[in-house]
Amino acid sequence: MKKLNFLCSELSGTGGTETVLVKVLNHLINKYDITLTLSNEPEKSEWLERLNSKVKVLTFKGNNNLAKLVFISKIFLFSSNTDFISLSPKMILIGNKLRKLFKKKYRIISWFHYSLTDQDMFDTEHTLPYADSHFAISRVIRQQLLDLGIPKENISLIYNPIEEADIIPRPVETPNKDVHLFYAGRVILDGQKNLREMFTGISDMANVYLDVYGTSDEIKECQKFAKQLNISDRVIFHGWTPDLWKKIKVRPTALIMTSKYEGLSMVMLEAIAHGIPVITSRFKGYDDIVQEGINGFSYSLGDIQALTESINKIAEANLDARSVKDSISCYYPEKYFEHLDESLEQFLNYTN
C-alpha cells in the first residue's frame, strides 16, 4: 500500500482547514497508509478525534526551531516509500533540498488553503515552485500558481469537500422585520476577517442582529469596538463553538463575511449546504461559491453602503433554501472525491 504523509504547520484546531483534513484523510485511508504530521500542537485537539483510528498522527512538541527542523528532516529522510502532501511552504523547501542532497525519490504535492499573494504569512515565490505538483482549492489559487510560472499540467483544481446537510428550519414568522446574521471564524477586527467593516455596516441598521462564533486574542478589541458603535445589545459573542451546526437550530437570515482574502471558505460552503444564503465581500475567489441572487449577495470591499444594501437585499429576497443548497453540488463528496482520487493518482505516478 502506498504511503502518504500530510505535512501541516500552525493549525489552531478550530479552522476550516482542519475540517477538510478530516474528510480527506478519512477518505484516503481506504487506499493509502496515511500519516498526519503537525509541526505545532493545536490549541484545540478535538478535531483529531474525528480522524479514522488508522491515521497516524505525529506532532512536534516544543518551541525550539532547531529541534523542529531536525524533527521534520528525520521524517523526510527516514519515511520509506512515502510521498508528501504539504500544507506548509517551509516544509516543501526542506523536503526538496533534502531530496536533492540525499538522492531520495519521494514526491511533494502542495495543498494550500490560503490566497498565495494577499498575505504575509509565507514566501510563496521561493517555496511553492519546489513542489512537484499542486492542488488548488480555488480558481484564484490556480491562477496564482500559474503566475509563479508553474506549468498548468502540474496543477489540479480540486476545490474542497463539503458534506450534504439537512436544511435548517426557518424561524416562526413574526410581525417584525428583524434580520438575523451570523459570522463564524477567527475574530479579527482589522486583519484578514475585517470585522470592523461588518460592525460598522450593521451599526446604522436598527433591525439587524449578529451572532459571532469564534475567538482570538482580538476578541476584547472587537467587543470594545461594538460598544463604541452602540451595538453591543445586538451583537452576541459566543466564543469558540466545537460543533457550530448543532448550535444553530433555527435558520439565520444569512451568513455574513467581510474578509479581505480567503482561500476557499469552508464556513461559507457549510452554510449554503444547510440552506443559508451568504452576504460576502468580493475577495478574490468569492465567486467560486457565490451565485448572485441565487445563494447570496456580494459587495465591494470598503463600500459600507453597498454592504448595507446587500443586507437589505438578502432580507427582502427570501431566497429558496433548496435552491441555495443545490447551488454547490460540485462540492459534495461523490464528485469531489472522484476528482481528488484521479488527480492524486496522476501526480504520484507522474515522472519527469
Summarize the structure.
By secondary structure, the protein is α/β, with parallel strands linked by helices. Helices cover 34% and strands 17% of the residues.
What characteristics describe this protein?
352 residues, alpha/beta, Rossmann fold, 2 domains, 7-stranded parallel β-sheet, 6-stranded parallel β-sheet, 34% helix, globular
Q: Would you kindly provide a written description of the structure presented here, covering whatever features stand out?
A:
The protein has 2 domains: 177 residues, 3-Layer(aba) Sandwich (Rossmann fold); 152 residues, Rossmann fold. 34% of the residues lie in helices and 17% in strands. It has a 7-stranded parallel sheet, with helices on both faces. Strands 10-9-8-11-12-13 form a 6-stranded parallel sheet, with helices on both faces. Helix 6 links the parallel strand 9 and strand 10. The longest helix is centred in the C-terminal third of the chain and has 17 residues.
